[in-house]
């Protein structure tokens, strides 16, 4: 996707066009789990509709599996769409069809032979762990089971690209974890590229390899998930990260910490792995400084650790100052004043 713009006619006569996607470029490589995150109205769902050809870009280029789709007629677009699976927030299952019939539907539309359909449906239901629910109807299933049926249906035609639009937003935390683990298997075992649309940073942290942050129809930051989490460069990105990562305490939070804990309040930030945490503790102990962790935490993203730990330090004031100067050589140190 390169320099893509999507605008709509003005809502009032004589008004300006409404720009939903503003000069967006995204490069999703084969095998990626690419997260697109933004608050409501950021333009992320419009972006999905452009990728699967349900809407046409006003300008720019969109290439899906080597095919430029922005100028394709609907008949040609249907062929491209056959290689794209889609799962939705509200599942979009046919309540009048059994689980097996729901999974079979895209294969029936594609005109596949009955024996092939039966074999593929059985294979997909086994993959998502619902072989015993083949004859059930959607209203007999839990939310998590419905989404697994949705995933099985999306994968039935063996697509190379899966679009997941807020696929876990209607689920409780435990069920969300199960669905994310299943999507991880889809990516690892089946080699399916996933574009993950969400407003939940925890979903990005759990599953995505790369992320783009959208705000006002634009991509304001992009990169590896670890880099964006550990050191966000944009205010919108920082707001998302703060929903799942405790950073440096605010002035109000510092006041609360001072009321509860004696000593100097100091935050140590780690972005290069967990070894530096141990070194900080060793340096403090060697200087005879007592310390207590009072805020923050360490996060792990695909085996790489980062985070912020705020400590209350007690001991000789000059010894604390000297220890902080030593620690600042290998870790970021922020003292509350």
Automatic annotation (TrEMBL):
<dbReference type="InterPro" id="IPR041701">
    <property type="entry name" value="MetN_ABC"/>
</dbReference>
<dbReference type="InterPro" id="IPR045865">
    <property type="entry name" value="ACT-like_dom_sf"/>
</dbReference>
<keyword id="KW-0547">Nucleotide-binding</keyword>
<comment type="function">
    <text>Part of the ABC transporter FtsEX involved in cellular division. Has ATPase activity.</text>
</comment>
<keyword id="KW-0813">Transport</keyword>
<keyword id="KW-0472">Membrane</keyword>
<dbReference type="GO" id="GO:0005524">
    <property type="term" value="F:ATP binding"/>
</dbReference>
<dbReference type="Pfam" id="PF00005">
    <property type="entry name" value="ABC_tran"/>
</dbReference>
<keyword id="KW-0029">Amino-acid transport</keyword>
<dbReference type="Pfam" id="PF09383">
    <property type="entry name" value="NIL"/>
</dbReference>
<comment type="similarity">
    <text>Belongs to the ABC transporter superfamily.</text>
</comment>
<dbReference type="InterPro" id="IPR027417">
    <property type="entry name" value="P-loop_NTPase"/>
</dbReference>
<comment type="subunit">
    <text>Homodimer. Forms a membrane-associated complex with FtsX.</text>
</comment>
<dbReference type="InterPro" id="IPR017871">
    <property type="entry name" value="ABC_transporter-like_CS"/>
</dbReference>
<keyword id="KW-1003">Cell membrane</keyword>
<dbReference type="InterPro" id="IPR050086">
    <property type="entry name" value="MetN_ABC_transporter-like"/>
</dbReference>
<dbReference type="InterPro" id="IPR003593">
    <property type="entry name" value="AAA+_ATPase"/>
</dbReference>
<dbReference type="GO" id="GO:0016887">
    <property type="term" value="F:ATP hydrolysis activity"/>
</dbReference>
<dbReference type="GO" id="GO:0005886">
    <property type="term" value="C:plasma membrane"/>
</dbReference>
<feature type="domain" description="ABC transporter">
    <location>
        <begin position="5"/>
        <end position="241"/>
    </location>
</feature>
<keyword id="KW-1278">Translocase</keyword>
<dbReference type="InterPro" id="IPR018449">
    <property type="entry name" value="NIL_domain"/>
</dbReference>
<dbReference type="InterPro" id="IPR003439">
    <property type="entry name" value="ABC_transporter-like_ATP-bd"/>
</dbReference>
<keyword id="KW-0067">ATP-binding</keyword>
<protein>
    <submittedName>
        <fullName>Methionine ABC transporter ATP-binding protein</fullName>
    </submittedName>
</protein>
<dbReference type="GO" id="GO:0006865">
    <property type="term" value="P:amino acid transport"/>
</dbReference>
């Amino acid at each position: 996707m390169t320099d893509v713009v999507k605008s709509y006619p003005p809502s009032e006569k004589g008004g300006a066009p409404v720009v939903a996607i503003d000069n967006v470029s995204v490069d999703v490589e084969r095998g990626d789990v690419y997260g697109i995150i933004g608050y409501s109205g950021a333009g992320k769902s419009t972006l999905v509709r452009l990728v699967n050809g349900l809407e046409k870009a006003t300008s720019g280029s969109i290439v899906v599996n080597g095919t430029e789709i922005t100028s394709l007629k609907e008949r040609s677009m249907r062929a491209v769409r056959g290689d794209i699976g889609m799962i939705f927030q509200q599942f979009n299952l046919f309540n009048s069809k059994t689980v097996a019939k729901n999974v079979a539907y895209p294969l029936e539309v594609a005109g596949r032979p009955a024996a092939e359909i039966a074999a593929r449906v059985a294979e997909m239901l086994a993959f998502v762990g619902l072989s015993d629910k083949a004859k059930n109807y959607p209203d007999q299933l839990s939310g998590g089971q419905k989404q697994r049926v949705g995933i099985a249906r999306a994968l039935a035609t063996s697509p190379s690209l899966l679009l997941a639009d807020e696929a876990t937003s209607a689920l409780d935390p435990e069920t969300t974890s199960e669905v994310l683990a299943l999507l991880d298997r889809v990516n690892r075992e089946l080699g399916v590229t996933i574009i993950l649309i969400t407003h939940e940073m925890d979903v990005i942290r759990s599953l995505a390899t790369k992320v783009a942050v959208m705000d006002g129809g634009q991509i304001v930051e992009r990169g590896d998930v670890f880099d964006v989490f550990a050191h966000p460069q944009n205010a919108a990105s920082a707001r998302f990260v703060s929903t799942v990562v405790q950073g440096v305490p605010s002035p109000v939070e510092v006041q609360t910490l001072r009321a509860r804990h004696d000593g100097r309040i100091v935050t140590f930030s780690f972005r290069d792995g967990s070894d530096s945490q141990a070194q900080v503790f060793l340096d403090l102990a060697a200087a005879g400084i007592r310390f207590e962790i009072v805020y923050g935490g360490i996060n792990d993203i695909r085996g790489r650790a980062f985070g912020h730990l705020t400590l209350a330090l007690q001991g000789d004031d000059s010894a604390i100052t000297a220890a902080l100067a030593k620690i600042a050589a290998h870790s970021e140190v922020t003292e509350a004043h």
